[in-house]
Write a structure and sequence with these properties.
34% of the residues lie in helices and 17% in strands. The structure holds glutamic acid.
Length: 607
């Protein structure tokens, strides 16, 4: 996440940068406000980065809608937050169409190549080491971003991709000041960037070290790539020169002579790129205490896991008990929900996901018997049997028979990804989470094109043996399970919240705890997203991961007395959100501190 370094000269630069005319008149535009919270009307956006939020506002002020604004922000983040997201990756967009009063989702998740048989990820009968897969061609899924942006704009935007990419082209050409977060992210990657000529040339200085804080970082190659997309549409990415360069990079990694590591090439082909499809799916819809939640369905586990958690929690009235007692129920509900998520959720094109059974209230009632009101579970809990509530389904696929090496998104809470929330004057809303998976993806910049490739296929689970069943085991053409949880919340048909976060599988609990904080504990949204976090994901040790500040809270002490254990996980997540107020104003809120803090803006601020 970028620090909010903007001063007046940079504000002017954003409005006046040559090359591409700004979409709004610079003289008429109010100064940028680099703040994590803003309230007003006429449209709003919140992202991790002030330039991305400014790009969204630029589109909104020029009459663009929430989808235009979200894609503009995402394309700028590809420049300013390249270690988290970009056209080398994929994402999930949840869109509220105010005119139709309808929610749709745009799945542009990365997809395994057709030649990626599961056995390619095993050597000598065992899964290839996780770190070796991360920095390899084998972990690269077919990127979905470029087609996802184009599809979302064609269906629901008001401006073409060529128009929406202009702010990002400007930022890539003109550059921006390296801040401490960008510097740190480069530093974490420096060893592997040194091993790839293209990555070193872009992200490291001539001395092979990260560009220092304050240096101007430019990415003319990415500007050119965005121009190619603007001129030729996604075709150039999936069938044209970018496709060829991408396949070359995956199959013949651009290693420097004498590189320090073994890098396994991948099997991605031009055919994989040409066949890539964006999938428009209905959301997963559930209810909680009078609110309606619209989340992302499989292959993301976000919407279903949140629904399961809040269905279990609904039987417990927050007003009737202490915060600690309610948090106990929340953590135990989350534990049960994650047991089901792990056992049943995978790419629905490859596995039967018992969605109706999982969402049925009869199943919730049965599952509730496993939730002790007075003691934390001391073991990882077993999944339930939603197939019994699925209606019409006969054979119930069994839970995985062998434990799998956990997917990347299950293990590390501070992985990179980013979340964008936008709304426009007409009331359309976008919650959009996108990623290249790990911080810096697979470490390889596509030579001449200025973007990093994803390592999204490490989100597959690898069972100990190559033929053991698992809903999230890799297969040719399959999308790995995600935890990304872009979420929209409504009450009586009116929007209340839009939110989402990075953070691997802690994304789900970060969104969940923010809902608890705001909807149940009554914290104002900015306080709800800043509060210390705790995350229970059916940990095998039964302990919850928690932020350092949470460990010293009165709630932690009370929970410890109920048998909860905690592991200090450092910062968890970095949420951005919108709160829609009954008077028609909107509060945009971004994370105030974690990962450097984010940026929220509204078109017409109110005091
Ligand atoms: N790849 C992860 C997922 O799809 C997101 C990356 C992260 O936030 O760590 O769930």
């Amino acid at each position: 996440m970028r620090r909010l370094l903007f001063s007046a000269p940079v504000t002017l630069w954003l409005a006046l940068a040559p090359g591409c005319a700004p979409l709004f008149a610079s003289r008429a535009s109010p100064p940028l406000v680099a703040s994590p919270t803003a309230t007003g009307r006429g449209g709003a956006a919140a992202t991790v980065d002030v330039r991305a939020t400014a790009a969204a506002l630029e589109l909104l002020r020029a009459g663009g809608n929430a989808v235009d604004a979200a894609v503009a922000a995402a394309s700028v983040l590809g420049v300013t937050d390249p270690y988290s997201c970009g056209i080398g990756g994929g994402g999930f967009m949840v869109i509220y169409l105010a005119g139709d009063k309808r929610v749709v989702t745009v799945d542009h998740r990365e997809t395994a190549p057709l030649a990626l048989e599961r056995s390619r990820l095993y050597e000598n009968g065992a899964p290839i080491a996780f770190d070796a897969l991360v920095t390899s061609g084998l972990s690269v899924g077919v990127p979905g971003m470029a087609l996802g942006w184009d599809e979302a704009l064609r269906r629901h935007g008001s401006r073409p991709l060529a128009h929406v990419l202009q702010p990002a082209i400007r930022v890539a050409e003109q550059g921006f000041a390296v801040d401490p977060t960008f510097f740190e992210q480069t530093r974490h990657n420096v060893e592997r960037f040194r091993d790839f000529s293209s990555s070193a040339a872009l992200f490291l200085g001539p001395d092979g070290r990260p560009w220092p804080v304050g240096a101007t970082f430019k990415n003319p190659d990415l500007a050119r790539t965005y121009r190619l997309l603007a001129q030729g549409g996604p075709h150039v990415f999936y069938r044209g020169e970018i496709a060829r360069a991408l396949v070359d990079t995956v199959t013949r990694p651009p290693l420097v002579p004498g590189a320090s590591r073994t890098v396994r090439p991948g099997v991605l082909s031009l055919e994989d790129l040409a066949r890539y499809e964006v999938l428009v799916r209905p959301p997963v819809t559930s209810t909680y205490r009078g609110y309606t939640l619209h989340g992302m369905g499989a292959p993301s586990s976000g919407g279903l896991t949140l629904a399961l958690t809040f269905h279990l929690l609904e039987a417990h009235a927050p007003a009737a008990m202490s915060r600690a007692d309610f948090l106990h129920r929340y953590l135990e509900a989350s534990r049960l929900a994650f047991a089901d998520r792990d056992a049943f959720v995978g790419d629905p094109a490859f596995v039967s996901v018992p969605e109706a059974g999982l969402l049925s209230r009869e199943y919730t009632a049965q599952r509730a018997s496993a939730l002790s009101l007075t003691r934390a579970s001391t073991v990882a809990v077993a999944p339930g049997n939603p197939w019994a509530f699925q209606g019409g389904a006969s054979a119930a696929p069994s839970a995985p028979s062998e434990p799998a090496r956990p997917a990347a998104e299950d293990t590390v809470p501070d992985k990179e990804t980013t979340h964008i929330t936008t709304t426009d004057a007409a009331g359309n809303i976008v919650a959009y989470t996108c990623t290249i998976e790990g911080e810096g993806g697979n470490g390889m910049v596509v030579p001449g094109y200025g973007f990093l490739l994803n390592n999204e296929l490490t989100d597959f689970d690898l069972p100990a043996t190559v033929d053991a069943p698992h809903p999230n085991a890799p297969a040719p053409g399959k999308r790995p399970r995600s935890s990304m949880s872009p979420l929209l919340v409504f009450k009586e048909g009116a929007p209340v919240l839009a939110l989402g976060s990075p953070g691997g599988s802690t994304i789900i609990t970060t969104v969940g705890q923010t809902l608890v904080n705001h909807l149940d504990f009554g914290m104002p949204l900015p306080e709800a997203l800043a509060a210390p976090r705790v995350s229970q994901r059916n940990s095998p040790t039964h302990a919850s991961q928690a932020e350092t500040e949470f460990l010293t809270s009165p709630e932690a002490a009370a929970l410890t007395a109920l048998g909860h254990g905690f592991i200090d996980a450092g910062p968890i997540g970095a949420l951005t959100a919108l709160r829609f107020h009954p008077d028609g104003t909107v509060t945009a809120a971004a994370e105030p501190r974690r990962r450097g803090g984010g940026s929220a803006m509204v078109v017409e601020p109110v005091k």
